[in-house]
Amino acid sequence: MPELPEVHTTVEGLNTVLPKKTITNIWTDYPYSVFWKDKENIKDPKYFKKFKEIFVGAKIINVSRKAKYIIIHTDKGHIIIHMKMTGHLMYGKYSFDTKDKKWKPTDNKSPLADPFNRFIHFCLELSDSKKLVLSDMRKFARVFFTESEHTDHDDIKTLGNDAFFETNNYTELKEAVVNTRSTKPIKTSLMDQNRIAGIGNIYSDEILWSAGIHPKRNPNTITDSEWKKMFSAMKRILKQSMGMGGDSLSDYRNVFGEKGNFQNFHKVYGKKGKRCPKKDCGGIIQRTVIGGRSSHYCNKHQI
After folding, report:
1. DSSP output for 204-244
2. CATH number of the domain at 161-298, please?
3. Domain limits of the chain?
4. What pLDDT digit, counting tens, does each position of 227-268 carry?
5. In this prediction, what percent of the chain has a pLDDT beyond 70?
6. pLDDT of the residue at 180
7. Do 10 and 255 meet the contact criterion of CB atoms below 8 Å apart?
8. CATH number belonging to the domain at 4-157, selected among 3.20.190.10, 3.40.50.2000, 3.40.50.970, 3.20.20.390
């Protein structure tokens, strides 16, 4: 699933190409089921019809993010996209194949033609004759809107502190996570979007490895010095990944269809059975399941 660095990379890319463009048409082929009836999701045909009525003709102002949510601000309201597990947004020249009933890039040699980019289920046609498309292999992504202030929407206002804290005060992280009534392990707590918004499997593993904290630790047992290490690791690792264009171990690609590079610098995620890369450690990377999610850690220095 795209996490904060991938969403940040996407937003940065979109802000270089979308502002001042007008949406001239909107298309989707997301399959409908009764599950989506009357839900805020373009997978409900009635909702999509209203979505299209509002935003065809809308002028794009800019793009921002809140945690893993991408918000396209227009003069008619706000389009909100959560890429979920396999979604990624791309911008470029596309044509519609009437035989396959799919959008395809006009240049077969461009990064947009990467096979991972072919699962297009949503498209904004733009006034510059280019398209903003959403490739989503698993079809879990969500697209919805609000005509009022986006920060008032329930999905947005219930999110916790952004994982890329603006301050350098570790106590904000501690206060967001610690709950004396909770027995949830630190791994699960870091991924709780109502506490800390933007972190998933990859970055929680990398952060805890760097801080030397076992993923099953109860947050209430973590010392102030350990919180400081975790906070520092969180900001450093997220910033490092942003600088590398995010992580493309799985499906993620940037708005031009290109891979990020952070997957080439994992210390622990996906490294089960390998020697811990920490200097003079000698531990072996283990894998376990915590709260239904995989977790990787060193059996020696993470305590």
Report:
1. HHHHHHHHT--TT--GGG--HHHHHHHHHHHHHHHHHHHHT
2. 1.10.8.50
3. 4-157, 161-298
4. 999 999 999 999 999 999 999 998 899 999 999 999 999 999
5. 100
6. 72
7. yes
8. 3.20.190.10
